[in-house]
Amino acid sequence: MARYRSYLRAHENSEDILSAAAAHENSEDILSAAAAHENSEDILSAAAAHENSEDILSAAAAHENSEDILSAAAAHENSEDILSAAAAHENSEDILSAAAAHENSEDILSAAAAHENSEDILSAAAAHENSEDILSAAAAHENSEDILSAAAAHENSEDILSAAAAHENSEDILSAAAAHENSEDILSAAAARKLPAEGNYFFF
Fold first, then answer.
1. Residue 204 pLDDT more than 50?
2. How many helices (H) and strands (E) would you count in the chain?
3. Is the pLDDT of residue 177 over 80?
4. CA–CA separation, 2 vs 21, rounded Å?
5. pLDDT of 134 above 70
6. Does the reported pTM lie above 0.85?
């Protein structure tokens, strides 16, 4: 850990960062993964800026793709909101690993955290077995922000996301729904009917 101490002193909260990271068994993995990227300073400082800094760092480093998770999150201006929102839930590990498992991980995380209901979006998506498909399908479109915000804006957000991703045409379902002004009504109506396991959706 000594090799990273001088590298992290560029931030006022460097001591908090190191102490929080060292508090876990995987402290070495946390620091090494973070320092492996050019934006390592921003990654660590953003994570330690919240009360749940320990949970954030430990959850991220607990997966093989820890480097991608941390670098993708810190690559955006709202890095603090992304990390804090993800770690605020019990399934924080699933959320981070599922998001970073795709090439468009940066878009997924930034789009989700760009809204006030970022916590609901991430927790609802990761609460299902097909969390990876849900997140990747939503972020694969230009209107990813509208899709995620509209879905999480309702109480049945979990049912909406799981129902949409359960079909082969998941990308078309989500993009078609968010492409209309009544996107919120479309998504909520679809989930309220408990759509069958197979079949086509018609939003028009």
1. no
2. 15, 0
3. no
4. 13
5. yes
6. no
Determine phi and psi for 32, rounding to 5 degrees.
-65, -40
Rounded CA-CA distance 18/8 in Å is: 8
Burial class (CB in 10 A: 0-12, 13-18, 19+), 96: buried
Q: How confident is the model over 164-178, as a mean pLDDT?
A: 76
User: For residues 34 and 44, is the Cβ–Cβ distance under 8 A?
Assistant: yes
Q: Report which DSSP code applies to 195.
A: -
Judge contact between 86 and 122, C-beta under 8 A.
yes
Of 89, 24, 112, whose CA–CA distance to 62 is shortest? 24
State the amino acid at position 43 in one-letter form.
Answer: I
Work out the number of other CB atoms within 10 angstroms of the CB of residue 88.
Answer: 18
Average per-residue pLDDT in the chain?
A: 73
